[in-house]
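[agent] plan:
  1. take the single chain provided in the ticket
  2. run structure prediction with default settings
  3. attach structure tokens to the ticket
  4. add a short note for the reviewer (M.T.)
[agent] executing step 1
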Amino acid sequence: MFRIEADRERFRQIVRGRIRKDLRRYLSTSELIARRGEHAVSVPIPQIELPRLRFGDNSKSGVGQGDGEQGEPVEGEADGEGQGAAGDQEGRHILEVDVELEELAEMLGQELELPNIRPRGRKELSAEGARYTSIDSTGPDSLRHFRRTYRQALRRTIAAGEFDPADPRVVPIRDDGRFRARRAAPRPDSSAVIFHMMDVSGSMGREQKEIVRIKAFWIDTWLRSQYRNLDVVYIVHDAVAKTVDQDAFFHLRESGGTKISSAYELCLKLICEKYRPEDWNIYPFHYSDGDNWSARDTERCISILRDEILGRVNQFCYGQVKSAYGSGQFKKDLDEALGYDERVVTAGVGDRDDIAASIRSFLGKGR
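[agent] step 2 finished; step 3 output follows
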């Protein structure tokens, strides 16, 4: 039994090592998103096989079995793209391994060298402590406190005049039972809310939204490992902004204009009405291709950020996704106006290879 557990743990470490090795690839694909559960994600990895020796005929010629000729194909391999009639050989199998989201976040933190978050908002939640620090008169036998139970039985026996020093026998009854118990007490518990805001106008295509989807998955995974309670709010905008569910956020596409201030105004409204900075750590993330309908609205956005939002949030992050139809001007204006403020982080994403660097920019300050 112990050998089986040791082999299982060894295999687990091999699998985790393989996932860590391929983590950069997972950071640029949506492979894991569809496999995400409530507490774990199913990670597909190539099947791991242990090397083994096989007896055979070594008299054959060919590459690896003698001198061979230049250009001679390796034995067992065939030319072509792998298309054609069905064969009778086994294929290359994929192994899926369930990995806890907390462990996946730990891998992400090690890969990108992310510091732990320093929470700002605090909320007092009533919760039972993890240690048994109290005594109760009821409870299961497994939590019976022998010394307290015997002491109570001794007191009852003496009070009843039944104690005999010559025969100091004490027999506890059910009412004498004393049991270990956990005491409920308020304790500080960090809570956070993420605002994912995205431009869904016609200039944001399928690839741009897929990049946003991948970034949001990894950002959520990391922040969930840092906070016990995490709310996620999805806001989409073209000329107007509205809250939607997660599915609509990643698949909705509209053809209207782009008015970024509408998203910031809605975000500010929700913060003031529902997510007080005294209780919540607040993280607004905005994704766009950098087009805004007018310079005046860009000035309005900067005013909302500087005067209203930045004083209430841990930090504000803007990710600009490259698009064939986007000018990319908004990031330039944002950097010029608020680049001095450490609470403002901007990152440009040209393609999927830039996702890891942008995530590190967003989460690397530990705010």
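[agent] step 4 note for reviewer: The first strand starts at residue 40 and ends at 46.
[agent] ticket updated
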